[in-house]
Amino acid sequence: MSGMSMTERPKRGVPEGLWVRCPQCKATVFKKEVAVRLNCCPECEHHFPTSAHDRIVQLLDEGSFEEWDTDLRPVDPLGFVDRIPYHQRLVEEQTKTGMYDAAVTGKGFVRGRGVVLGITDFAFMAGSMGSVVGEKLTRAVERATEAKMPLIIVSGSGGGARMQEGILSLMQMAKVSAALARYHQAGGLYVAILTNPTMGGVAASWAFQGDLTLAEPKAMIGFAGARTIKNTIRLELPEGFQTSEFLLKHGFVDRIVHRRDIRTEVARIIDYCEIG
């Protein structure tokens, strides 16, 4: 009616952070629904990045995780500077993630089966391997050897060896590998779980040394990036190159396992390959 004044209400926008766009199917999906599905897309099952904390919840029995070596902190032995000094970068990453470095290790239970667990988290400097990551994984392997417990390491490392620590980072490849060799000689069971991404020095060392190697669907796994390889050899790479499906076809991965099934699969493997 012309004589009636109407109160204008401000437009209500959609609160930020409720929705997320899937990089695979491009669907806009409700973030809480993604979280309920263990950070997997409800439309196409794309596996989103997952924190070390969430992987512990997904893999281990509730409340069973006992974290080790929580006081180990990285240092800047080379005084390395690129865009910003390395020591400043470490502080920024620690503030952002609430972690001292990219690895979390400890022990827990998978459906009642005791295991030693190591995880690298992509959120901290792309999960790259510095001295602290190598030291924590080595200690975890050595404790698994002493306790005669199955070992699980989940890789989320896109950065390989951390260039800011130079040779001190590269030597972690050999250090962790040597510990795994001793573990193998002692009859241990090592299950490697490769997630997106698993690249560089991590892929060239402990990530591919498991007695059984599992991978999440469509994970990027390899050493150098596909663009670098293509520019070096000047050849077209096969379709799906460096995906977990490609590696399964060519014998580098034993099984591709959806995130929702990983706990059951690991428990089954331990039962089949029981050690003690």
From TrEMBL:
<dbReference type="InterPro" id="IPR011762">
    <property type="entry name" value="COA_CT_N"/>
</dbReference>
<dbReference type="GO" id="GO:0006633">
    <property type="term" value="P:fatty acid biosynthetic process"/>
</dbReference>
<keyword id="KW-0862">Zinc</keyword>
<comment type="subunit">
    <text>Acetyl-CoA carboxylase is a heterohexamer composed of biotin carboxyl carrier protein (AccB), biotin carboxylase (AccC) and two subunits each of ACCase subunit alpha (AccA) and ACCase subunit beta (AccD).</text>
</comment>
<dbReference type="Pfam" id="PF17848">
    <property type="entry name" value="Zn_ribbon_ACC"/>
</dbReference>
<dbReference type="InterPro" id="IPR000438">
    <property type="entry name" value="Acetyl_CoA_COase_Trfase_b_su"/>
</dbReference>
<dbReference type="GO" id="GO:0008270">
    <property type="term" value="F:zinc ion binding"/>
</dbReference>
<keyword id="KW-0479">Metal-binding</keyword>
<comment type="pathway">
    <text>Lipid metabolism; malonyl-CoA biosynthesis; malonyl-CoA from acetyl-CoA: step 1/1.</text>
</comment>
<dbReference type="Pfam" id="PF01039">
    <property type="entry name" value="Carboxyl_trans"/>
</dbReference>
<feature type="binding site">
    <location>
        <position position="25"/>
    </location>
    <ligand>
        <name>Zn(2+)</name>
    </ligand>
</feature>
<keyword id="KW-0443">Lipid metabolism</keyword>
<dbReference type="InterPro" id="IPR029045">
    <property type="entry name" value="ClpP/crotonase-like_dom_sf"/>
</dbReference>
<dbReference type="GO" id="GO:0009317">
    <property type="term" value="C:acetyl-CoA carboxylase complex"/>
</dbReference>
<keyword id="KW-0275">Fatty acid biosynthesis</keyword>
<feature type="zinc finger region" description="C4-type">
    <location>
        <begin position="22"/>
        <end position="44"/>
    </location>
</feature>
<keyword id="KW-0067">ATP-binding</keyword>
<dbReference type="GO" id="GO:2001295">
    <property type="term" value="P:malonyl-CoA biosynthetic process"/>
</dbReference>
<dbReference type="GO" id="GO:0005524">
    <property type="term" value="F:ATP binding"/>
</dbReference>
<dbReference type="InterPro" id="IPR041010">
    <property type="entry name" value="Znf-ACC"/>
</dbReference>
<comment type="function">
    <text>Component of the acetyl coenzyme A carboxylase (ACC) complex. Biotin carboxylase (BC) catalyzes the carboxylation of biotin on its carrier protein (BCCP) and then the CO(2) group is transferred by the transcarboxylase to acetyl-CoA to form malonyl-CoA.</text>
</comment>
<keyword id="KW-0808">Transferase</keyword>
<dbReference type="InterPro" id="IPR034733">
    <property type="entry name" value="AcCoA_carboxyl_beta"/>
</dbReference>
<feature type="binding site">
    <location>
        <position position="22"/>
    </location>
    <ligand>
        <name>Zn(2+)</name>
    </ligand>
</feature>
<dbReference type="GO" id="GO:0016743">
    <property type="term" value="F:carboxyl- or carbamoyltransferase activity"/>
</dbReference>
<comment type="similarity">
    <text>Belongs to the AccD/PCCB family.</text>
</comment>
<feature type="domain" description="CoA carboxyltransferase N-terminal">
    <location>
        <begin position="18"/>
        <end position="276"/>
    </location>
</feature>
<keyword id="KW-0276">Fatty acid metabolism</keyword>
<keyword id="KW-0444">Lipid biosynthesis</keyword>
<feature type="binding site">
    <location>
        <position position="44"/>
    </location>
    <ligand>
        <name>Zn(2+)</name>
    </ligand>
</feature>
<dbReference type="GO" id="GO:0003989">
    <property type="term" value="F:acetyl-CoA carboxylase activity"/>
</dbReference>
<feature type="binding site">
    <location>
        <position position="40"/>
    </location>
    <ligand>
        <name>Zn(2+)</name>
    </ligand>
</feature>
<protein>
    <recommendedName>
        <fullName>Acetyl-coenzyme A carboxylase carboxyl transferase subunit beta</fullName>
        <ecNumber>2.1.3.15</ecNumber>
    </recommendedName>
</protein>
<keyword id="KW-0963">Cytoplasm</keyword>
<keyword id="KW-0863">Zinc-finger</keyword>
<keyword id="KW-0547">Nucleotide-binding</keyword>
